[in-house]
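New to this. Please check this protein:
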Amino acid sequence: MIVTLTKRFPHLAPLLEKYAAQQQRLEYPAKTILLHEGKVAQHYYFVEQGCLRVWFNNNGKDTTVQFFFENEGVASIESFRKNIPSIFTIETVEPTTVQVLPKKVFNELINNPEGHPYFLQALIDFSFERQQHYMNEFLSRIRDTPEQRYSNLLNDRPHIVQRVAQHYIASYLGITSVHLSRIKNKLAQKKKSGRI
């Protein structure tokens, strides 16, 4: 996280370098839970290599909300900032290396007068980007059919389809794996007949 912020906001370099040593670089195998739903978040995770999945328990059904890949960061932000239970779980999808920033260090960065308002501005920029992404996802769930959502995924974020298991993608699209197989077959037929 700190390295990426430094590249994007070079004027923050002196401030961020002070805290770089307090980040931990950790490696996890696939299917490792980094944060359990209902627990209070204590860390911000920045993906160096691999993939994280955010999901929640929907009446006993595992529902995927988002995927995070290289150079993306995630935390259960409300839990992290307000010390309340997380509404979702963060889990590795594949072997993953993350940079872990403890809450204490994050809070020091926010409250450090040397970094204000630049660090806060960087966080606001990242937050607006995430907010825009979530708004697009929300509108797509209302407006688009599952087939359209899968087509959008293929066009806009093909790495998800290439790297993530089909049952996770189906969960992310809000459908069953069987339904996703039908959509894939239908799209393959359209492509074969030249209608795509």
Remarks:
- The chain has two domains: 1-126, 134-196.
- The first strand starts at residue 24 and ends at 28.
- The radius of gyration is 19 Å.
